[in-house]
Design goal:
mainly beta; single chain; five-stranded antiparallel sheet; 9% helix
Amino acid sequence: MRPCNVRMTNNLRYIHRNIYNDFLDSQLSQYPKGTVKYYGKKYTIPASVFTDKTNWQRGSFSYSWSNASKSLYNLKATGTAGHSIFWRTEKKMKYVIILITLITFSTQKVKGNECISQICDVESSIIIRTQEKEYFVVQLFRGFTKEGEFVKKLLISKNRKDIVSIVLPSSEEVKNFDANIKKYRTGFILETLYGGGENFYTRSFYFKCIKGNLFLYQIVGTHIIPNSDKKLVNTKNIRPQINVRNFNIQYYLENTP
């Protein structure tokens, strides 16, 4: 999560000035100089998008992207505490509503998905080919649950047959949680980021293909303290290696050192 805890995705965003002011005061009390260093890059508080007067109308902040009109749901700020803003999902109405965080979806069904609604989007996809002429497809989906909670899901198939479906934690279950995937050698990496305030964490889960299956063989974790150069890195080799079917991400996140 970047400074100001507002992700700039392709959607409309809305926040009432009272909520914004409380949130800004909390940020500046932590970073009184109005800057914060994050992954070696310095950010200004507040961000320029919030100081642009054209983004403020009738005492509320709103920001729109060109693809926002295609979305079916909006997220609206309901309050703030500490360094976090809390949101409520709202289905789009026929009339115009000023919003703050909405994530673009395509109307696509996810096979075997019990937690993410049918309104979802494929965020990224990886194809892994093996020497045995087999192949895996690793897909990361994002969407809203029926309860309006935004979550991501990892779906892995082998030769067009689903072998595992992993629903990742929401940002409410694990603070500011986010995830992405990327191809790596004969497998892939599931990269996660979470935390807030004085402590940010990353966990990179390394999977590789062994004898026709995908196995977790290594975890690289970092502990980052904003506004300082302190960064702790821990590499753990998994013995015995864990089949992706038995992978429990919650265990490794709950046992963050």
